[in-house]
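Quick note —
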Amino acid sequence: MSKIMYPPIEPGQKVDLDWRHNDYRIACCDCNLVHTFRFAVVSNTLRIRAWREPHRTGALRRYRGIPIAPPNYCMETESGDG
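Predicted structure written out below.
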């Protein structure tokens, strides 16, 4: 089975896509959250649909060694009230 690799994209970097033929999976540069984007022209307007890919996100984070919190995990914040 081949692995899907996500090219490193820096914040604000321009990326050229052949958007008419494919869905694109993009991983966020800092949190490694994976999204799928679909582009279409409807009534002379560019329509962009995006959704999260939780299974691909988990796989990418495991591959890169990023800790994954359980779905119901809640981080406690420290208060300075003493």
